[in-house]
Amino acid sequence: MTAAVTAPCDNPFFARVWPVAAAHETEAVRALRRENLAGLSGRVLEVGAGIGTNFPNYPSSVVRVVAMEPEPRLAARAQAAAAAARVPIVLTNETVEEFRGGQPFDAVVCSLVLCSVRDPAMVLRRLYALLRPGGELRYLEHVASAGMRGRLQRFADRTVWPRLLGNCHTHRDTERAIIDAGFEVNSSRREWTLPAWSPMPVSELLLGRARRP
């Protein structure tokens, strides 16, 4: 849920609540985070690193992670997590719009961030350009649900949820946006991380892998 395209990125309330939420993630979410990073290698770009929750999960086959976190309070926490990681992690406060990656990346990781960017289509096109041909987009994202929960999500998105939670929009068709940006989806599935009866609009997550042709 970390906003990746805001300049400047200043979310004082979200910067206070997100570290608490991240520290109390369910085991189901932690397992999905590990699965999202499993098997990565080479140079990796992580968008919206937050407080560095993913950093301990990168496999040793990753030679370098460039982690983007433009919210300064979250970035300070991520810096400490980067220092303790087993792979080299370089933190940048640039946004996707500003970032100039140089050499293409072998993979891009998005975890609970595409729900928060101002322009998902633009962000995904930019990430496509930053990947080498054949490179992977790994994503673990909030996703639009159907039925009653979908109606709850639309209500949340129209009211206070984005304003309080770093521009998080819970009812986005993220996988359609990924395909429209030119990616080929290799695998994806939806997972419930809270009981189906939970009133939270972010109970359902989408885990997937896509590639740049």
UniProtKB/TrEMBL annotation:
Gene3D superfamilies: Vaccinia Virus protein VP39. One of its GO terms (molecular function) is methyltransferase activity. It comes from the Bacteria. This is Phosphatidylethanolamine N-methyltransferase. GO terms for biological process: methylation. CDD domains: AdoMet_MTases (cd02440). Pfam families: Methyltransf_23 (PF13489). Keywords: Methyltransferase, Transferase. InterPro entries: SAM-dependent_MTases_sf, Thiol_S-MT.
